Amino acid sequence: MKSLTTNYYETGSIILFGIGFTMLLLHNNIIKKIIGMNIMDTAIFLFFIAKGYVHGKDAPIIRGTAAGYIDPVPSALMLTGIVVAVSVTAFLLALTVRLYKAYGTVELDEIMKMRGD
Fold first, then answer.
1. Which of 13, 35, 69, 91 could in theory staple to 43 by disulfide, Cβ–Cβ 3.0 to 4.6 A?
2. What CATH number is associated with residue 3?
3. How many domains would you assign to the chain?
């Protein structure tokens, strides 16, 4: 139990991931599924940024000496991940708009009934 309270960033990210995964699995609304996926993305970003941070070190901006900096690779990867997540979200929302125009609903079970599946 002590490790859960000392590693609160990791604990928070696991809880967020669980909330997002639950939303992704249990809801039939496509918008709610996209929100759940975004919550899962945010949890992963939080986890990796928390793992990349070293307490007491500076940001990787050279100010004289090169010692004592945080590793910039996790932050750079998460920045790339954020761009990819925003792009995927925009694409999924565009597909959702197309589905709504075609079927008049964003509920997956109703769309499946209309298609005869």
1. 13
2. 1.10.287.3510
3. 1
**How many residues in the chain?**
117
Enter the pTM of the model. 0.82
Question: What is the Cα–Cα distance from 100 to 57, expressed in whole angstroms?
Answer: 49
Are 12 and 35 spatial neighbours (Cβ–Cβ below 8 Å)?
no
pLDDT in tens, 62-86: 666 656 777 788 888 999 999 999 9
> How open is the CA angle 41-45-48, to the nearest 5 degrees?
135
